[in-house]
Amino acid sequence: MALLFKPIHFASLTLSNRIIIAPMCQYSATDEGEVTYWHQQQWANYALSGAGLCIVEATAVQANGRISYADLGLWNDHQAEKIKNLLNKIKTISPMPFAVQLAHAGRKASVEKPWAGGGQISSSDAKGWQTVSASDQAFKPEEQPPHALSLDEIQQLIQDFAASAKRAVEAGFELIEIHAAHGYLLHQFLSPLSNLREDEYGGSLENRMRLVLQVVEAIKKVVPQGYPVGIRISATDWMDDQASWDLESSIQLSKALEALDIAYIHVSTAGLHPDQQIKVGASYQVAYAAAIKKAVNIPVIAVGLITEPNQAEGILQSQQADAIGLARAILFNPRWPWHAAAKLGEQIRVAPQYLRCEPHELKNLLQPFS
């Protein structure tokens, strides 16, 4: 069997294959951070894709942690109830497990939707707010500086991550991913480019890692025993000409996360600094996943312009990663897993309503959900 279609375990959760739908912000929530009809059709589409797991978009643990005013939230029970109702509907059409990525955007918050320009919205605007970060360094020079979180505010943030995690479990998500990548708040604490603190959360690598590890510990305390908690990190800031967050730092963080029984490491890169110099190309982030995989004994998910089935299978066969994350590729082709199964000569489980669409030459490729 192709490795891409072999089961994998994330703590107590077993996935039918190793195709992961990575989180993708939709900027389509209500002003109150609640799901809309867009999420209903989008999540249903994901559920029928044949992938092994869907991790839905970055979902804020505080109102000021949204990237935009149209982002999802889990900072209150009403938001959780709306999500629970939607997940209950999804489970009537597909057994695919759904996960949520809990996040705080930090200094990269309070921006317009991408298709409306994506620029920062001033805190004086009705749709904007004061951003926060590890230090008062703005993401871009022309932007409003963030408020540097106090020690008390950091403790509240940790509590809010845990409270949102508890809501996520109660809403029906089967896995939680912590967002510590792409220049958002937890990444802002990790990188010396954005963290200029002089207390226990700044300075040394140990201090800069402290918040991420405390968030993991707090979440693990409120979720059921064995419940999978994973994390997404940026393995490098792509700022090699100066002291920044880099692969060696990510390896040290990954080892510390493994010691806390994290379910997996989801390896992306970048997003911390506007001057990043990214060498983009097919599989351009996979080498970072491979390096981290060599350093830990827990599953590693690779992402980064992985678009072809043979490419994905090759990454797994060469032991550079344990699972493959797809984002834009699956937005463009929502049945990517079906085509991958056909290409690799494997069967894939689908809703029985789709069985009649199977081409004659691929007889028995599609099998009904069990």
Automatic annotation (TrEMBL):
Residues 4-344 form the NADH:flavin oxidoreductase/NADH oxidase N-terminal domain. InterPro entries: Aldolase_TIM, OxRdtase_FMN_N, YqjM-like. Its cofactor is FMN. Gene3D superfamilies: Aldolase class I. Coiled coil: none annotated. This is Oxidoreductase. Keywords: Flavoprotein, FMN, NADP, Oxidoreductase. The keyword DNA-binding does not apply. Pfam families: Oxidored_FMN. It comes from the Bacteria. One of its GO terms (molecular function) is FMN binding. It comes from Acinetobacter wanghuae.
